[in-house]
Amino acid sequence: MKKGFSAWEEVIVLAVIAIMVGIVYQRYEMLRKKAIKTQLRIELSNLKLAIELYKIKNGKFPANLLELYKKGYLYYKDFRVDKSKHKLLDRLNHAYIYDSKTGSVYINPETIKALK
Length: 116
What we know:
Strand content: 5-15%
Number of helices: 3
Number of domains: 1
C-alpha cells in the first residue's frame, strides 16, 4: 500500500482552496469600497459643517476648501491637500468640487465612478 496523496487529490484540494480565496477576495473588495464610501460621506458632512461655520463667523463663504483647512475649521486633519491647486483631495486623490458662490461641496464624479 502506498502512503500519501495522489496528484489528482492534490489538484482538487488546490482548486478548492483557489475558489475559496477568490470568494473571500471578492467579499473583501466589496467591503473595502463600502468603507471608502462611508468615509467619503463623513468627510463631505464635515466639509459642509465647516463651510457653514466659516460663513457664520466671517459672513461669507471661503474662497476655496484649502482656506478651511489652513484656518483650522476642519478638525479632521487627515484630508489630503494639493497646495499647488488649492484643493482638498478625497480618499482616491480626486479633488472635491466646491462652489464658492453657493457654498456647495460635492464628491468628484471620478471618485464615484472608481467605486462602482
